Amino acid sequence: MAPARLSTTAAVPASGDIAPSVIERLQAAAGDGGWSTDPARLAPYLIDQRRRYRGSAPLLLLPDTTEKVSAIVRICAETRTPIVPQGGNTGLVGGATPPAAGGAVLVNLARMNRVREVDAAAAAITVEAGCILAAVQQAAAGAGFLFPLSLGAEGSCQIGGNLATNAGGLQVLRYGTARALTLGLEVVTADGRVWNGLRGLMKDNTGYDLKQLFIGAEGTLGIITAAVLRLFPLPSQRVTVMVGIDDVSAALRVLNDLRAASSERLNACEILSARALEFVLRHVPGARPPFTELHPWVLLVEAEASAGDALGDALAAALGDLLEAGTIKDAAMAQSAAQAEAMWKLRESVPLAQTREGGSIKHDIAVPPARAEDFMRKAEAAVAKALPGVRVCAFGHLGDGNIHYNLSQPVGMQPEAFVAEWDRLSRIVHDIAVEFGGSISAEHGIGQQKRADLVRYKPAVEIDMMRAVKQALDPLGIMNPGKML
Questions:
Q1: What pLDDT sits at residue 433?
Q2: Which of 41, 189, 265, 433 could form a disulfide bond with 438, CB atoms 3.0-4.6 angstroms apart?
Q3: Are 275 and 348 in contact (CB under 8 A)?
Q4: CATH topology (fold) of 237-351
C-alpha cells in the first residue's frame, strides 16, 4: 500500500481578508517605514517577472532587521496568516507572487541590505538577504576577492532570493551553484525562531546539513535573512573565446579539449543556436556577428588565470589543433575587455531579443551533456510535429547541461495564441528531457508554474520525503503556500 500523502495546507485559509487587528500588529512589528498598504506601491510586488501570475495582498512588509522578521513571522504563526517571502522579484516561475485570492502578506527583504563582514582569512563574506547580487560582487572585489555567482538579473536580484532558488548562472562550470557557494545561513523558521547558522566553516560534521534544506526551498520552509558566502581569488586575466561549430557533439569535444588545455580553469561554456544569434542581430542595436559566416551553433568559452599565466597561448594552441582537425569552423579570441564584453553581449541579449521577436515559451531543462544533442534532435522534431512552424531558440550553459530550450511563435501566428500552447508544448519538451535522464528545472525553480510537473516527474517516494520535510518545518503551512508543493 502506498504511504498516505501528508497535508500541509489545511490550516491556511484559501482566500479572504486578514483581520484589521492582525494587520495593525504586523505594521507595528515592521516599524516606521517598514510597511505599506498603498495599492500603487504594492502593484509591482504583485506580478511576476514574466507577467504570467498576478497576486493580491493587503500589506507589504519591509523589515530591516532579523528581529523584525522574527516578530512578523511569530504573529503570522499565531494567527495562521500566510507569508510570501520575496527578494528582488526576478524569478521566472511565479515563486514570489502572492496568491490571486489574497489572504497572505508579502515580506520583502530589500531593506536588509548590509554587508556584515568580509573575512579575508576565511575567504568569506557575510551579507544580509536583501543585498543586491551585484553589490555582493562589488564588496568582494573591493576586498580583493571574487564572488562568482553571476546571472542576467544581478543588478536587481537579491542574494536571499538567489539562495532560496539555488541560482546557477554563468559560472557554474567552475564554481558550482548557490549551494556550493554557501557556508552558513541565518534563517527565521516558520514559528518565528531565529536559527543562527552563520558559522562559515568549511568543515562541520555535526549532524544534518540544515542550510541545504533552505537553499532551493523557495521560501516554503523559512525565511533566509543572512548568509556566509565563499569567496575566491580575484582573477587577474580572463580569456574569452567564440567558436563556430556544426553540431553539439563538436561543442562537447571543444569543451573537453579546452578544459584540458586550460588545466580545468574554464569558468563558463555557453552555447547559442544560429536562430538565437539571428534574433540578437535583428533586435539588439549594436550587436555584431562574431564571424562572416553564420554557423549552426556558436560556443562562448571563458577561462580565468592569475597574472603571468600563459593561459591565452595554451587555449590558442588548442583552438589551432581543433581548426586543423575540422572540429571547429571558426574561432575568435577577444583581444581586449571591450571585445570580450561584445561577445558576452551576444549571449546575454538572447532573452530580450526573443521577446522582441514575438510570443515565446520558455524551458529551463538540464540533461547530461553527452545526451544534449540527442535531446535537441528529438525535441525539435516533436515540437515541429505538434505545431508546424514553431521556431526553436536554444541557448544556455552547455558546460553543466542546462539548456534554455525556448520556443518562438511561428511566423504570422498571434503571440497570445502561441503562448496558449505553453502547457501542451512544455509537456512534450519535459517528457523528452526526463527520458534522457534530465530535469525539468535546472536553475529557475518550481514556483507556481511547475507544481504539477514536479509531481508528474518525481518519484512518489521523493515527493513524500519533500512533504515530510515541509510538515516538519512548517506544520501550519503558512510559508509561501501554493509554491513548489
A1: 98
A2: 433
A3: no
A4: Alpha-Beta Plaits (3.30.70)
